[in-house]
Amino acid sequence: MGMTTTETELKALMLASQDGDAAAHRMLLERLSRHLRAYYKGKFAKIGRGVAEAEDLVQEAVLAIHLQRHTYDPQELLTPWVHAIARYKLIDFLRRNRASVTDVPIDEAGDVIANDDNLSAESSFDLRRLLKHLPEKMQCAIEAVKLDGLSVAEAAQRCHISESGVKVNIHRGLKTLAALIAQRTQT
């Protein structure tokens, strides 16, 4: 993301979004999705992970940005704030998938992890509220893996579905959540 017009435009959208402009919020999430998709595809290409997994991370990051938008300080640049969330989601993914964090060039990983802790309780509460709109198996898969940190195998046992069922449910569930957020005007 170049720090020129992109920063200015995205920041204007974010500020309008924080003021409750639903159209600006949708546009912001769409634009950020494109940036994040390029970011994750680039990182994943280096470790040979698939596009579907990159897409899940895009949805997760967009969800986090949506849930945490009230924590963004308008005095700061928006791009580094978004980048921090994106990196945090990537590190989280690598940890969960036992992929080696050293395989992926992640800049100042420590900073990201250190800064995110205070946000997670409140955003996981919002996430649990949103999850109620999903079918039971999807809820179960997302809660098990994304909120409770279980492996796919453990989630399959808990939710009584196959491991591939867990992956499909997470993938579809995240897409559905992203769509729900896009439809909703902001509170």
UniProtKB/TrEMBL annotation:
Sample GO molecular function, one term: DNA binding
Domain RNA polymerase sigma-70 region per the UniProt entry, residue ranges: 32-98
Keywords: DNA-binding, Sigma factor, Transcription, Transcription regulation
Signal peptide as annotated in the record: none
Start and end residues of each RNA polymerase sigma factor 70 region 4 type domain: 126-177
Gene Ontology biological-process entries: DNA-templated transcription initiation
Cited SUPFAM superfamilies: Sigma2 domain of RNA polymerase sigma factors, Sigma3 and sigma4 domains of RNA polymerase sigma factors
InterPro entries: RNA_pol_sigma-70-like, RNA_pol_sigma-70_dom, RNA_pol_sigma70_r2, RNA_pol_sigma70_r4_t2, RNA_pol_sigma_r2, RNA_pol_sigma_r3/r4-like, WH-like_DNA-bd_sf
Domain of life (superkingdom): Bacteria
Protein family: Belongs to the sigma-70 factor family. ECF subfamily.
Protein name: ECF family sigma factor
Organism placement in taxonomy: Bacteria, Pseudomonadati, Pseudomonadota, Alphaproteobacteria, Hyphomicrobiales
